[in-house]
Amino acid sequence: MTTAQTNSMDPTKLDALIGRAVGDLSAGYGGVMVSLGHRLGLYKAMAGVGPISARELARRSGCAERYVREWLNSQVAGGYVDYHAVSGTYELSPEQAFILADENSPVFIPNAWSVPASMWADELKAVDAFRTGAGIPWGDHDGRLYCGVAAFYRNAYRASLVPEWLPALNGVVEKLTSGAWVADIGCGHGHSTVLMAEAFPASHFHGFDAHPASVDEARKAAAAAGVDARARFSQGRAADFPGDGYDLICYFDCLHDMGDPVAAARHAAEVLAPDGTVMLVEPFANDRVEDNVSPVARLYYAASTTICCAHAISEGGHMVLGAQAGEARLADVFRKAGFTRFRRALATPFNLILEIRR
Would you state the pLDDT for residue 306? Predict the structure, then answer.
């Protein structure tokens, strides 16, 4: 670095950027600790018991005390566990337990760390993709990706899909209650399909996904929930899945992964009932890059770089939307497919919930 370059720097800006970089590095290390705490049952062993010593936590979790003590100190340093200096004990507050120990919580986070773990494992594939322009199919990623993505969205869907999102669509709950035919495209492990099947026993649901292993997991989920008689799953693609006369066609956080989203939307128009509805759930994004500057946007752009865009390119890349497409670009996709009505039904910090009709 030359003297001139050094002298042109703003020390305050430099210090702030260094602080951010170190904070990001710390978060990466911390994610490993969170995943270990979840896998070893450390958070669950702390939840609701009040102050606890490292020795007692080691006994409760069946782990070695010296490792547990160091792990606890990492959690204190990161603000995920409270420390009582006088007694030398550690405590998981109700708020911390809600995020780290309650697997049914809508903000349960440990499983989500499987996604960046898979991204690191696939780094060489990403390097090659950058240099060649080739795509990376969804099924070619590290196995932790599928479980991580499913877990990341499952609890959010459980908290919001039936009580909030579906009621925001005009007339859809009434149809589902009386009996409707529903297609869930890109259903993954089937959590969204199963949730709807549990809530609306008079309706029939068919989930489609191009990834065979995910279809297998979806079938297991439906059987475990006791809804496999009315929630079926098949391997299929968005542009040619079978069936006709669907009252509701859903895309949950998947349209942006497709190599030809217009073809997918056009097929939906062909198989939708005359008064049917398309429910499009996509990662939250504003329409302009300069308006997508936030931790959530950064998370989505990063995943989009190595996962979403990579898969769309592997499918031909006719239109690579990316995970931060924004409402205007999404609306344009469906207008090109012949739809005329498009509205934002709801928005959360993580998702846009959009209603589309012909």
Answer: 96
